[in-house]
Structure to design on (590 residues):
């Protein structure tokens, strides 16, 4: 292991999972466990469970689970060693570093230091004659010097190796520049700067580290915008540009836009609650990040086809979440007799901050936006089009979770279609029933298929022998339920387990007991991948009776031994065989 096991045991003992999780999630006790809204996916009803007794968490919605270290890895986007250091700092413990961990941590810190020094290089160049072209561009855009400083803006030199040479002189290697995405290798093996003659915008995470860069050309050359590629310290799915500043806003919400320069303009105009995704549509990971700082989002994408599509996708991700969501649609601007789209930067420039504030206050909610999108498709003066509109909008309204919400917007849809509310209500009710029947059929198919019902969700963890694996799960649950059930000697070898993961956890439990340490799931989960930890947490949430536990354990052990002997003899798992027969149409025989 990367850290001494005794240190990990003490760390998890000092890091009570309820205390740690409560710093991110509001928890309410329900029976033996505590529940809250999952921080890993958007939901309106809390399905995130924390077990104080087992020191684990599990979400019944997104199926993620684990111990306290796994939680910090997921929530703070940290690798295992850094999550351990994070918790150690919180607990006031000194971390006993091993050579491998020291090296991995050193590489990460070197990349962050390289990014920071690159940002300083670009910033300083903007203040010098070599950065005059970028400064002229900022002046044309109306971006004030104080705003440029606030965002750490810079200029990349109009040279092939300006940054490369400067960073090598500072002691960074060419390999580090490649890994950080600041340099590119040509076909001959030579390196050159990735960003040349561009406005540079450092991307800073909520911890204050420079993790990447955005950039824009000064002329009409392509690509117009260029961002850092994924690196060991940067994942665009997990970062929002400007959130390091917007998290301090006094406004009650956050505005989500498309472009980095839109964010700069909005902040300069007094809207310091604006953030942008990094060249990608809104992701679940970004909603988790946003949920730490607000429960109210305003979507403000460009008013063109791509912007409307991005808005629709964002609304689908946020549907049923704890967020209150509104949509701000920027009106088109008349230019030379034609209406053209506006982004927030254009609107602020031509209409001013007060006009944007009025739009912000009048922004429509997500349902109103989607209803308007449906209405735009049809000429509602035509009877045929009105019928088609009613069919489509009823499908939309049938997906709303609340009866009151459906009733309100059903009445509004009836007004738009110019039909009676009763007729529209009947149409929505029919759509709601169709949706319910479809969901029921889907659930029934899933329940009829034994492979789906008993298999782990993650494909890489699928069981090769379902009968043995169910018994293996029972063994783990019983040993964790009561460590007095451990026999004098291990009754099974790890190799007898049909599931490599379950066998590995079984072996770790015995190793823990042999070393005289308390048998607990939390430290073991910290050594597993997120998918593995989620699956083990899920199976530990399943009930296991303490009555006749010794007999149940003996029965489980017998099944595992029998199935191991069957596999050694080349026999197939009968339940898997039945499943294959089901897939081929023999449902009645399963």
């Amino acid at each position: 292991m990367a850290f001494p096991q005794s240190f990990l045991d003490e760390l998890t003992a000092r890091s009570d999972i309820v205390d740690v999780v409560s710093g991110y999630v509001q928890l309410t006790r329900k029976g033996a466990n505590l529940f809250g809204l999952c921080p890993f996916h958007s939901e309106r009803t809390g399905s995130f469970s924390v077990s104080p007794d087992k020191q684990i968490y599990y979400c019944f919605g997104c199926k993620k689970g684990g111990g306290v270290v796994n939680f910090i890895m997921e929530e703070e986007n940290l690798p295992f060693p850094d999550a351990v250091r994070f918790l150690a700092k919180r607990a006031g413990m000194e971390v006993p570093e091993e050579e491998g961990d020291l090296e991995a941590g050193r590489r990460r810190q070197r990349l962050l230091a390289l990014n920071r020094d690159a940002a300083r290089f670009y910033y300083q160049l903007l203040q010098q004659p070599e950065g005059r072209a970028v400064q002229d561009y900022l002046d044309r855009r109306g971006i004030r010097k104080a705003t440029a400083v606030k965002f750490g803006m810079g200029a990349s030199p109009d040279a092939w190796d300006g940054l490369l040479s400067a960073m090598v002189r500072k002691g960074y290697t060419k390999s580090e520049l490649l890994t950080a995405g600041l340099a590119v290798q040509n076909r001959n093996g030579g390196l050159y700067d990735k960003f040349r003659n561009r406005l540079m915008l450092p991307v800073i995470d909520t911890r204050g580290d420079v993790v990447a860069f955005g950039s824009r050309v000064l002329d009409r050359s392509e690509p117009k915008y260029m961002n850092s590629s994924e690196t060991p310290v940067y994942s665009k799915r997990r970062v929002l540009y400007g959130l390091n500043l917007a998290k301090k806003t006094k406004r009650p919400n956050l505005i989500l836009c498309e472009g980095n320069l839109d964010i700069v303009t909005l902040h300069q105009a007094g809207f310091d609650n604006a953030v942008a995704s990094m060249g990608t549509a809104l992701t679940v990971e970004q909603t988790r990040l946003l949920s730490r700082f607000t429960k109210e989002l305003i979507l403000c994408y460009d008013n063109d086809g791509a912007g409307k599509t991005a808005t629709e996708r964002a609304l689908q991700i946020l549907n049923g979440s704890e967020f209150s969501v509104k949509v701000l649609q920027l009106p088109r601007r008349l230019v030379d007799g034609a209406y053209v789209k506006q982004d927030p930067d254009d609107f602020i420039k031509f209409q001013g901050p007060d006009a944007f504030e009025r739009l912000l206050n009048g922004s429509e909610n997500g349902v109103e936006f989607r209803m308007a999108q449906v209405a735009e498709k049809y000429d509602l003066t035509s009877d045929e089009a009105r019928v088609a509109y009613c069919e489509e909008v009823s499908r939309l309204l049938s997906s709303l979770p609340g009866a009151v919400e459906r009733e309100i917007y059903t009445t509004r849809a009836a007004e738009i279609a110019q039909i009676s509310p009763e007729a529209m209500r009947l149409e929505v009710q029919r759509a709601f029933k169709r949706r319910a029947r479809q969901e029921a059929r889907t659930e029934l198919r899933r329940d009829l298929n034994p492979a789906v019902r008993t298999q782990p969700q993650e494909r890489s963890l699928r069981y090769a022998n379902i009968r043995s694996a169910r018994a293996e799960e029972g063994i783990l649950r019983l040993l964790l339920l009561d460590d007095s059930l451990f026999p004098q000697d291990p009754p099974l070898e790890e190799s007898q387990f049909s599931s490599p993961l379950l066998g590995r956890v079984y072996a770790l439990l015995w190793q823990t007991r042999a070393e005289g340490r308390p048998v607990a799931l939390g430290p073991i989960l910290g050594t597993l991948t997120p998918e593995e930890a989620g699956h083990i947490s899920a199976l530990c949430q399943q009930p296991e009776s303490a009555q006749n536990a010794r007999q149940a354990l003996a029965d489980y052990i017998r099944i595992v031994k029998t199935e191991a002997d069957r596999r050694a003899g080349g026999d197939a798992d009968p339940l898997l065989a039945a499943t294959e027969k089901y897939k081929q149409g023999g449902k009645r025989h399963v």
Summary: The CA atoms of residues 456 and 462 lie 6 Å apart. The first strand starts at residue 28 and ends at 30. DSSP finds 26 helices and 19 strands in the chain. The radius of gyration is 29 Å.
